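As a warm-up, study this chain.
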Amino acid sequence: MKQTGSRAGAIARLLAGIVLITAGIAMLFIPGPGLIALLFGFGLVGGQSKTIARGLDRVEPVMRHAGRRAVRAFKQLSTPARIAVVAIATLLCAGAAYLAWTWLR
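Now compare it with the structure written out below.
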């Protein structure tokens, strides 16, 4: 890893990464882009930590393979099955949003 920028910038990136990871974990349980926040957070922290960077490097091929398999499986479904999958996912997200809304009220 090449060091660029100041020490204050490195600390700011590390803190931003930790905040994003924390927010991402919270957003896994309440409506929000939790996985995206986690990925950006781990990316920022991984830029400062060789251990986390190595872990991300190990996980990336596995996640890419799983994503490709999911897309391939979805494409092989019939149109009614695709509609059912999207409808179920939408209902689950709406239910989670409703539960979070009623819980946080």
